[in-house]
């Protein structure tokens, strides 16, 4: 049986890391695509030469033409620009919207059956625009943000509790921005919800509030340290987790920016929600119940995403 084909649209910091991870995990053959000439070819060759030591046989190719992504089973999109210190994700909207148009058209023409994972920021608006430009089914176009935001939350919690990250589950929903919603009540250590752990004296409410805020600011913290770009190791790992769930029909329950029409009181928009990912892409939206405070935070986040989508429509009338 032929190996799956994975097309990485954008061969920058995240794209290169995605290629290396996908090869090491033997998820399939890899095409690294970018408009910058030489970059995808150079990274592909470099990563291919890690194969003998790592022991993988994936075919690794760099490309500047969309024809090379033909028939891809998975496309992971990082094309565009990342933010620099002082910038918000929303500042990237104008430039990255144009990039989504060319990427969406390229995928529609050459890889219309792919499962498409968008990472480009501002995430919720860009995944919506990418779906509009590509015309692919909604269940096959999804944004990566919740897996990363939840991983950041899990990491901070595991350090606070001095327990393995594997035993910490966490949910961060809503838009991938300052209004994201870390759901404390649905986050646990070994199944024990965080509010119970506060009552048990494992941490204080004040410390927990601090971790929630640090999670919301998780991307900016790394931008501030790197100064030249944004996080790329954990974002790449998070997207690979989603791609693997699709390719191996794992039915993973992962928070993703998915198209929601009906669940959680939403009518037809992309935002971070719990989903099930399997061979049909987004197979289910998990319609969790929120309490009043959680709902208020989620509503605020939904409004922020709606504002970004409206801004996209104002820039490109073909989206209106
Ligand atoms: P970077 O290293 O700059 O790579 C972006 C690549 O896109 C560059 O190699 C560009 O040449 C290429 N590119 C630009 N325009 C096009 C085009 N029209 N077609 C094809 N390729 C193009 O950035 P990065 O890899 O660090 O980040 C990529 C994106 O991911 C940015 O928008 C970040 O803001 C975003 N990001 C999102 C998250 C989420 O959690 C959602 C996390 C981190 C970064």
Automatic annotation (TrEMBL):
EC assignment: 1.1.1.37
Annotated binding of substrate, by residue: 83, 89, 121, 152
Domain (Lactate/malate dehydrogenase N-terminal): residue spans on this chain: 5-143
Keyword NAD among record annotations: yes
Domain Lactate/malate dehydrogenase C-terminal: 148-306
Keyword Electron transport listed: no
Any one GO biological process: lactate metabolic process
Alphabetical list of HAMAP family matching this protein: Malate_dehydrog_3 (MF_00487)
Listed name of the protein: Malate dehydrogenase
């Amino acid at each position: 049986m032929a190996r799956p084909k994975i097309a990485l649209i954008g061969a920058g910091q995240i794209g290169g890391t995605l290629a290396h991870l996908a090869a090491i995990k033997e998820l399939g053959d890899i095409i690294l695509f970018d408009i910058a000439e030489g970059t995808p070819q150079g990274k592909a060759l470099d990563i291919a030469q890690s194969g003998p030591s790592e022991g993988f046989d994936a075919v690794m190719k760099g490309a500047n033409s969309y024809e090379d992504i033909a028939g891809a089973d998975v496309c992971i999109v990082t094309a565009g620009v990342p933010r620099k210190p002082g910038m918000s994700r929303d500042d990237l909207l104008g430039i990255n919207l144009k990039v989504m148009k060319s990427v969406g058209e390229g995928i529609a023409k050459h890889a219309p059956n792919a499962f498409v994972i968008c990472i480009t920021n501002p995430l919720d608006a860009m995944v919506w625009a990418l779906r509009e430009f590509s015309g692919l089914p909604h269940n096959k176009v999804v944004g990566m943000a919740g897996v990363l935001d939840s991983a950041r939350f899990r990491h901070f919690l595991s350090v606070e509790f001095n327990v393995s990250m594997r035993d910490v589950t966490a949910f961060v929903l809503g838009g991938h921005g300052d209004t994201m919603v870390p759901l404390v009540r649905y986050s646990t250590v070994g199944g024990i919800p965080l509010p119970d752990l506060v009552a048990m004296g494992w941490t204080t409410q004040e410390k927990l509030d601090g971790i929630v805020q640090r999670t919301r600011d998780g991307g900016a913290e790394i931008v501030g340290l790197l100064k030249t770009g944004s996080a790329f190791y954990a974002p790449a790992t998070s997207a690979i987790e989603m791609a693997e769930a699709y390719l191996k029909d794992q039915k993973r329950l992962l928070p993703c920016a998915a198209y929601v029409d009906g669940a959680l009181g939403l009518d037809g928009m992309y935002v971070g929600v719990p989903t099930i990912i399997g061979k049909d892409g987004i197979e289910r939206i998990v319609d969790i119940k929120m309490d009043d405070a959680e709902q208020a935070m989620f509503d605020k986040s939904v409004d922020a995403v709606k504002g970004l989508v409206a801004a996209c429509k104002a820039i490109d009338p073909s989206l209106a």
